[in-house]
Structure formats: C-alpha cells, structure tokens
Amino acid sequence: MIDHSDRLASRKEDRFQGVGGLELYYQSWHPESIRAILAIVHGLGGHSDRYSNIIEHLIPKQYAVFALDLRGHGRSPGQQGYINAWSEFCEDLGAFLQLIQTQNPGCPIFLLGHSLGGVIVLDYILRYPQQASLLQGAIALAPSLGEVGVSSIRVLLGKMLSRVWPRFTLNTGIDISAASRDPQVLAAIAQDTMRHTLATARLATEFFATVDWINAHAGDWQLPLLILHGGADRVALPGGSDIFYQRVNCKDKLRIEYPGAYHEIQSDINYREVMADLEDWLERHLPSEVVQLGQENTELEFPSF
Fold this sequence. Notes:
This protein has helices spanning 5-8, 52-58, 87-103, 116-127, 129-132, 152-161, 183-190, 201-216, 238-247, 271-284, 288-301, and strands at residues 10-17, 23-30, 36-41, 63-68, 109-114, 137-141, 169-171, 198-200, 225-230, 253-258. It is an alpha/beta fold. It has a single domain (5-149, 209-295), classed as Rossmann fold (3-Layer(aba) Sandwich). An 8-stranded mixed β-sheet has the order 1-2-4-3-5-6-9-10, sandwiched between helices. A two-stranded antiparallel ribbon has the order 7-8. It is globular.
C-alpha cells in the first residue's frame, strides 16, 4: 500500500534516550492545527512505518501521530527480538510519552499499541497508573493477551533456555499470510527489509510472565479503553483480548471484534471500518473544549454557502 502520509502533514524524525542510554528512533506527523495526539507502539518484528492507514485517516481530523521503533526493531539499536527485562519496554515507553508531553504541553494524548505493542501499552498503564492518568485513553489493536500463533515447541524451548542462554534466538514461524487478506499488503510485508521474525528466549519468558500479570491485574484498570480485534486472527487469537476485557471493571470500555479479519487489522481489507470505529471512539473521548475547537476549525475551513 502506498504511503501518502507525508503529503498530508509535516513529518519529523529524531531520537530519544531510552533505558541504559540507548538512542531510540521515533517519527511524527503534524497537521497545521492539532487537537490531539496519538502515540503508536508497534508489534514484534515491526516498526513505526507500518501504520500509514491510521496516519492518513487521522491527520485530516487534526490529530498528530507519534510512533517509535522499539529497541531491537526498525531503526533503533539493540539485538533483534531481545530484551534484558520487560521493564525496558515499559520505561522506554514512559520516556517516549514524556518527550511527547514536553513538546506538546497540555495537548490530549491517546496511546495505541498493536499486537506485542498492545501488551506493552496495557502493562505500562497498569504498572504506572499515576503517569497513565495523564492520558485520554488507550487503544489495543489485536493485543497478544492469550494463545499466540507460535508452536508450543518453540515456546517451551524459549522458556527452558531463558536463564542459561537468554539471547538464544528462534524464528517465530508466524506465516506472513496471517497478517492480512489484502495481497498488496502481504507483498509489501514480504519486501519490508526492516521487518524481522525473531524472538529470543529471554523475550519469550518475559512476554508470557507479563501477559499473566496483566490478566491478574485487569480489575485495576481505570483508563478509557478500546480493543479492536480480528475474529480470524491466527497470530494473537481474539479469545485472549476478550478474557481481559471481561475482567476490566472500568465502565468506559469497548471491544469490537471484526468477523473474518486478520492480525494486521489496520491494513486488512476492512481497514476503513476499523479506522471509522477508531475515529469515532477518539472523538467521543476528546475533552469538550477540544471538540469545540475542532468544530470551529471545521466551520472555518469548510464554510457553508
């Protein structure tokens, strides 16, 4: 799919300091007038270039978009698919959000995570509720919260080797065809030189322990929550996000499951439906003064005769 996002907004790229001084890459897109910001955390093996449909849809609605490359991903340094501890992901995300807040004081911020990024987002918000209270809400796209499309042998091997050989690396074995029903999207993924399909033993054990912790603490969730999941997702099976959703006691929650949709829900053949649902939820969770500002701007830009 052709990325036209740079034509719609000014694009910036830079680096910020993550845990241990690692210089992590991020990029951002800015409309002329900003009502709110969406920060994106990608999935395992992905990177910040993979969300053009979201950017193209939200920029005309006056949302700025920030997206980072996690350590060991995309243009950020680090061994592919490796972390010393899950807390590195969490603390990197905290530094990223602080950077966004410093650059845009007082601007409403929403946090979105896809797949593994969804797990990082949910974990961050549950572990750091005080910092998370500054956010307007959280969106999880196809979060990997339950059964995943990785063979049980690979999972067992990763758990066994985590302590003695934490950097031991395996291919996840996830089939590209499970990403989307759109052949053009699959072709683009196959040609994506920044994408990888690697996971280390340490990442495997840290990931499964974090998922267990998130599910055990789901009842503590306080922030407005949106979960969007494909009903035919073979990478992160939708039952996992449904179980988490049922355990969340916060009343301001919504989960939408799209029958037949695959894992890259933002790039599947029904992506326009997904974008419309995302936009509708964001608009309903903007502060009232920001909504009014958007209405005023709309009247100025598109006068009625």
